């Protein structure tokens, strides 16, 4: 079935999965009734009463089972992402591998991360023990439909929590697949459940007393609403929100490496990544050469059908999102930005947007002030190193940042002490890693996922004191 306009289909009652390559409706899902949602939450709470008492070694064994199943299903799951939200299939395969890796990581380290910690006091014995808190509600986006879920799910399950998922409605097929993966991996019934619901039902779920905490990855507007609702009920939240990552190119940078890293980061997931490079802040003495290299490298990338193994850039996930991106580009150009490449919507019933490079970007333009969620890069000229740092920090966001310089000692100092972001990389593109905490500051959110810190977000840090 072809549809000519799919800006408005997300407002109707059914949850629709739509192929962004051609506008074809892949599937229609009935939203769960509130009665069914309540039943499923009650089932998950009952499952938690058993799951919280299982041995950590058993939970870790199941995580390893899940890693095996994910790797066995890589191609199938990558194809599902390609047709539901347009992810190039080679990137989808890499995403599933990363999901398997995070399961293996917590399977290996959860026992150490959760062990009791003896504290010397006047007591006969005093110690801290880390215990699960119950059901964690996860509200997840469409851009990394498996990774965003598994990076919270693996540590939450390892800690003995149970999980309820409200996924983005346009990737309902992926959401259902995740529940199937847990069943195939022999996790107990109902320790994880997917809810096919509308966003309007989320507040009611947060209000359910069996829900103990909420984690959300998404827009600032959505994160703010969820945080307000949860705070009114004294429920903990972890927020991973928007980003407008600055990549700083100093005058002593390896320009070939810098351009390659910037381009690869900007187009990953067709530009739809919170930690993609979005603002290229370049010291003026190397701006001309850097810009030339960026244009060469981005023109070499292939845009096309995400099911083709050679495709680097697929469509945007939805037409309405593509149109919002284009409006930001047009307004930036109207305000004085120069379009060096792209900037035109392709013909046809699809959600494609070409890789676009804007130069002469200044404060007051959307390309400077806002998050551009798509393959659009802003080149911002800096007078010198100090000005580059000031420009990088001149943002409401603080998710990731990178700095390129041959002086790695200086790069380390600037990353550690000057850049206002949750993850700061030197001479490489920002990425998440199961071994390292991931999250933001300022309007990019709070709390951390992954690493030691991620598994400690949703536990009761309990003091036990024996006189």
Report on this structure:
The chain is an alpha/beta fold. It is built from 15 helices and 20 strands. It folds into two domains: 9-241 and 444-466, Aldehyde Dehydrogenase, Chain A, domain 1; 245-434, 3-Layer(aba) Sandwich (Aldehyde Dehydrogenase, Chain A, domain 2). It has helices spanning 34-51, 56-72, 74-85, 89-113, 147-158, 172-184, 202-207, 220-232, 255-267, 287-299, 319-334, 366-369, 385-393, 408-417, 451-455, and strands at 15-18, 25-29, 117-118, 125-132, 135-140, 162-167, 192-194, 211-217, 236-240, 245-249, 277-283, 338-341, 356-359, 376-382, 397-398, 400-404, 423-426, 441-442, 445-446, 459-466. Strand 10 (245-249), helix 9 and strand 11 form a beta-alpha-beta unit. Helix 2 packs antiparallel against helix 4 and helix 9 (255-267) packs across helix 10. The longest helix is centred in the N-terminal third of the chain and has 25 residues, at 89-113. The radius of gyration is 23 Å and the shape is globular. The chain starts with 14 loop residues before the first strand and ends with a strand. Residues 1-12 have low confidence and may be disordered.
Poorly predicted residue ranges:
1-12
CATH structural class of the largest domain: Alpha Beta
Q: For the terminal residues, how far apart are their CA atoms?
A: 71 Å
Strand content: 15-25%
